[in-house]
Amino acid sequence: MQQIIKLDTTKKDKGNKTGKNNSSLDQKVEYKAEDSVKMSADKNIVYLYGNARVIYGDFELDAAYIRYDKKQNSIFARGLKDPKTGRYMGRPIFKSGTDGTAIADSIFYNSETTKAKVYGVFSEQEGGFFSGGQSKKQIDDELHIKNVMYSTCNLPHPHFGLMISKGVVTEKQIITGPVYMIIEDIPTFLGLPFAFFPKPNKRTSGVILPTPGEDATRGFFLQNGGYYIGLNDYWDAKLLGSIYTNGSYETSLLSNYTKRYKYNGNINLAYASFKDGLEGTEAFKNPTKNFSINWSHSQNANANPGTTFSASVRLVSTGRKGYYKNTAAGTTYDINTIATNSTSSSISYAKAYSNGMNFSLAASSDQTLSTRAISLRLPEMTFNIPTFNPFSPKNAVGEQKWYQKITVGYSLQGTNRIDTFDSLLFQNDGLKRLRSGFSHSIPVNMSFTALKYLNFSLGGTYNEVWNFQSVSRRYTQFADNTYTFREDTISGFKRAGSYSLSTSMSTKIYGRRDFNPAGKIQALRHVMTPNVSFSYSPDFTKAGAGPFRPAIDQNGNQIYTSGQPLKYSIFDGMAQPGSFGGPNASIGFGLDNTVELKVRNKNDTTGTGSKKIPIIQGLSFSGSYNFLAPAYKLSTIGFSGRSQFTDKLGINYNGTLDPYALKDTTVNGQIMKIREDRLFFQKNKFLPRLTNFGFSFDYSLNPEALKRKNEANDKLGEAANKKGLNDLQSEQLAAISRDPNAFVDFNIPWNFSFSYSFQYANDGNTSTISNTLNFNGDVNLTPKWKVTFNSGYDFKNNGLTPMNLAIYRDLHCWDMSVNWVPFGAYRSYSLTIKVKASILQDLKLSKRQGFYNTYQ
User: Which residues lie within the region annotated Disordered (predicted)?
Assistant: First the structure.
């Protein structure tokens, strides 16, 4: 049953204050019910039973029972008690304007003034839930509440909450009287006589509470407390600090910025001063000062098509063990970060043109923390012209002539480089270490097919380097034929060129063996891809030709070593050293193999289906023979490949075969084996010597866990690419990216995975073997308890590597986590119980104790 009634609002008293839904126009009241619709004798009161619905303007109401009084302009709704189960069913569900949907035990609503009175409400507001008590909506949209619980728990009967005895809720704020916390229906002493909660529609500033704890060498601490500043919709900042009772401290500034559809990024500056040792010692008097600078910037692909700009800057101090070790990875105790020995940074700009040409400009740095070496590129420039057919007309018709298949390309690379140590970089002569230069490369190539199956390629490459610095060496030779030299760097333009010619041929050879079609193994397929190449380049190392100069001693005589004249390149250590080798006329050879099995598919219900299993994937051998080499004309033979034994287990392997035999010689009174210029078969050896070999594999006993984890990481990547993330979301994504174990999936009951790497090397005198084993896993003790672990085995020291154990407990609207590093220099533990919802992120209990010791 359905009826629409028009109300004449022109007769209303103009002196009365009306709500936002009233106007001089007529308002329509639409109502219906599935069960029945009854009216009073005067037809002023309508009773609606069974899935009743009333719509008045932007007010919508659904309930099991609704009473509509036309004369009083009032609507009352409530649920009904099920006679069979005794449960209260059909509670009113209502929505007004842009407000969210709410559910209640009962509601009174005045359609003239838009006032409402609600009992037992349950509604969501910006991640929080209001439940219970009484709520009264006033004509000015203020909401008066009494005995209402506010919680982030989404259950109608929440596990915890803040009981608001009375309060007023407006569009931008909540003002309350006495407020106290209730946990599992038990009132606690945690409360306030009054409270004020802002409800802005933008980021706001606020205090960040610190985490208390204890460190074994630095005392008690308060970590990562500070202030969050919501500057505007596009930019924010977070100031954090940590203090220790022994006088150590840390400070950091983290700022995120974003402009939707344009760019986004973040800047993180950190500074730390740590006092180590006992009071009165030198280490205590002179604190270790460290800094860290991180900047990340990315441009949206649609912001400026064809142009990209990105930055990834990561600079840290290296003095006295460096930033990561002294700060325990910024107080995160992350083992992987603490063990970091190198950092790299880059800022790049690239432009791609419609004709295929592209240009890029980049500045980069590489740091080695242990040696304090630093390499800067300020900047590097590249320009490329894609290969094109200079002799082919634009509108060619028919088959190409042989000369129309010739292709030409061009690439230019410019470099400004400084290789030094961080302690010397900012000295007065630091910029004198700058090396600048350009390199040019012009490849010319032609490809064609002969005899249907043979693919040929002919070509050559011309290379030229320009350097704005060069070296000059002055040698001093002594009576025992030893020598030293002094090297000077000379400013000035120098150039040199080189070229090479090459040709290659490749084809494919197929082999197949069929078996019983009804058997488990139906066929075996072997694909071989042999290739042969020939390359030639003249001798560019002749003294006086190209960049090479003879080594002349103090008397003007040529210096000889092993009967050969000594020479050097004036481009050694320069920005563009070039590729100037000796004479080369070599044949290169290679063979790539793929072996596949065709087996019956057990999952095919028809019994005729099959699937392919790759047994050997890309097993390749390669080497070369140089006719112009004075000795050792045949190179070593390298091989690599991958074998897939099952759907879940694959092994990568690689190695090197040395075709030359060994002979005994005496060095410093000891007999040593050295290579001689004789091939293995000339000494009646059946196979060449294996000089190194390695293989690695990883395996998960529960592949579903690996699949889910990869899917979770993919979702994180997609979320990170979205623009407009707030500060908390950015911080959570960054934390999960740093710690993959932060993703805890309770739907996976167990998982155990491990990875193993083996390396063997033998130079004929000594052999070395290295093993690396890492393993991690997790198990659900109950549907809500999960234990995870991560460790490895050190074969050299016959012991476990630093282990990390974690226990997680899902408390529905709360999380509990325990992290423990039981042994090692960075042993620690932490306990955190916190609310899941971000809106109450500071409602937590944390305990952390570290045993970080700088003396280990």
Answer: 1-26
Type of residue numbered 484: T
Domain locations in the chain as residue ranges: 28-114, 208-340, 344-391+403-433, 434-635, 716-855
Q: Quick one: CA dihedral 182, 188, 193, 199, positive or negative?
A: negative
The answer to whether 318 and 292 have CB atoms below 8 angstroms apart is no
Mean pLDDT, residues 173-187 taken together: 85
Q: What is the pLDDT of residues 565-597, one digit of tens each?
A: 899 999 998 999 988 888 899 999 999 999 988
Q: Which of 177, 12, 188 is nearest to 110 (CA)?
A: 12
HSE, CB side, 13 Å, CA atoms: give it for residue 277.
10
**Average pLDDT score over residue span 827-842:** 72
Candidate from 429-438, 651-660, 723-732, 760-769 with smallest mean pLDDT: 723-732
* Contacts (Cβ under 8 Å, ≥6 apart) of 806: 741, 787, 788, 789, 817, 818, 819, 820
One DSSP character per residue, 310-360 reads EEEEEEE--STTHHHHHTHHHHT--HHHHT--EEEEEEEEEEE-TTS-EEE
pLDDT of 548 higher than 50: yes
Rounded mean pLDDT, 510-538: 89
Please, what sign has the CA dihedral across residues 369, 375, 381, 385?
A: negative
Instruction: Count, in order, helices (H) and strands (E) of the chain.
Output: 7, 55
Strand 435-450, strand 407-421: pairing: antiparallel
For residue 336, what are its two tokens? Answer: 């992987």
- Do 374 and 421 touch, CB atoms closer than 8 A? yes
Helix (H, G, I), strand (E, B) or coil at 825: coil
